[in-house]
Specification:
The chain is α/β, with parallel strands linked by helices and 390 residues long. Helices cover 37% and strands 18% of the residues. An eight-stranded parallel beta sheet has the order 4-5-6-7-8-9-10-11. Strands 1-2 form a two-stranded antiparallel sheet. α8 links the parallel β7 and β8. α5 crosses α6, α7 packs parallel to α8 and α12 packs across α13. The longest helix is centred in the middle third of the chain and has 18 residues. The radius of gyration is 20 Å and the shape is globular. The protein starts with 9 loop residues before the first strand and ends with a strand. Bound molecules: zinc ion. Zinc ion binds next to loops.
């Protein structure tokens, strides 16, 4: 993760949305056609387009009441028990029109672009009934058609058990496995199924039932796990998880069973920060034991309302003791692996999608996490096209 493959005085040639040549400017220029449109990014650091592999953008309103309650000392669990938290976003999504949701998701995508993000995983999960989960995923699909960036949709019907199913958990798990997952697979509305495996959300047994249904319908799998309470991860090995996300309190045994597998650990320092906690995910331990680590924003209205991947890179360095190079790999190549898109995304390589994040006022890649909270990027390049256009 420390090998960035830096090229100075570099250029890329984009043809049909892909990198056709990369390397020293003089070499790339020789391969460029005469009518090639040139864009000068001299004096900046250009990274591969950043990959935000974990977001929850389909909601109606920010959760300002929860924010104030937490400042006054309430815990995540206390806020959830008092009717706040995830469940308080459900009413907003159920009442919102698809167009309203499209508008909010598009706004987030534009924010992300100006921070250098070109690939975003987007989850449903605030509808929690068949119709509202499908509406959420259809809103994401409309954003896919409207905007140029790459979006990977995920069904998170298993976010929490909605209030109307309290006392009937099995019936809600049935709704997910027998109705939501088949409908989503049939309409090609999502590529992954995610489950929040946590006390107060879904048990490991329920999680397995849902993962089994996902695999049976040809969908990929990922988990929110080990955020507040540890769960042994070995039991999930049969489901070929693309990613296990959060991992703040993962045991060493769980970490060891991830090493040398296809599963990435996606760490979300924004949530730890915004919850005012100090138990950042154990990035060094994961990396030292051979686990591939990605970082993502976890953009959501309750615990991480930020679209900024550079800010996550800064937190990865200062709070999780990752080196700037490791943070960059985690935000690009390993994010692409977490979405099973490494053949197309995550590096500036001939044949991959021509996605770039130019950091206009940085001359050294270490400046990106160093100047924290600063808006460095202003635009991104998605498949060879500048977004937003200047
Ligand atoms: Zn999340």
């Amino acid at each position: 993760m420390r090998e960035l493959g830096i090229v100075t005085d570099a250029a890329v040639l984009c043809v049909d949305g892909k990198f056709a040549a990369v390397g020293k400017r003089k070499d790339v220029r020789r391969q460029a056609p005469l009518d090639c449109e040139e864009r000068d990014l001299a004096g900046c650091v250009a990274l591969p387009g950043l990959v935000d592999s974990h977001t929850h953008p389909v909601f109606a309103e920010p959760r300002l009441l929860d924010f104030e309650k937490r400042i006054a000392g309430a815990s995540y669990q206390e806020i959830a028990a008092a009717g706040g938290g995830i469940r308080s976003s459900v009413k907003g999504v159920r009442n919102a029109s698809t167009e309203e949701l499209v508008e909010r998701v598009s706004g987030f995508a534009l924010d992300a672009w100006t921070e250098g993000t070109t690939t975003i995983e987007m989850k449903s999960g605030y509808g929690l009934d068949l119709e509202s989960e499908l509406k959420s995923l259809r809103a994401i699909q409309q954003v896919v058609r409207k905007l140029r960036l790459t979006i990977v949709p995920t069904l998170l019907g298993a976010h929490v058990v909605p209030t109307e199913y309290a006392g009937e958990r099995d019936a809600y798990v049935d709704l997910i496995t027998r109705e939501m997952i088949p409908a989503v697979a049939h309409e090609h509305l999502a590529e992954f199924v995610d489950v929040f495996c946590e006390e107060g959300a879904f048990t490991p047994e329920e999680t397995e039932t849902i993962l089994k249904a996902a695999v049976a319908h040809g969908l990929g799998t990922r988990l929110h796990v080990c955020q507040f309470t540890p769960v042994e991860l070995a039991r999930f090995a049969p489901y070929d998880l693309a990613s296990v996300d959060h991992m703040e309190c993962a045991t060493e045994e769980s970490i060891r069973c991830l090493a040398d597998t296809n599963t990435v650990a996606t760490l979300l320092p924004g949530a730890t920060y915004f919850l005012g906690r100090h138990d950042y995910p154990p990035a060094r331990k994961l990396m030292d034991l051979g686990v591939a680590v990605a970082i993502a924003t976890d953009y959501n209205p309750g615990t991480s309302p930020t679209a900024s991947m550079p800010l996550m890179m800064s937190m990865a360095c200062t709070q999780m003791k990752m080196t700037p190079a490791e943070a960059i790999t985690a935000a690009t190549m390993n994010g692409a692996h977490a979405l099973r898109l490494a053949h197309r995304k995550g590096s500036i390589t001939v044949g991959k999608d021509a996605d770039l994040a130019p950091f206009l006022d940085c001359r050294d890649y270490r400046e990106i996490p160093y100047w924290f909270g600063r808006h460095h990027s202003k635009f991104a390049v998605c498949s060879g096209t500048q977004i937003p256009t200047a």
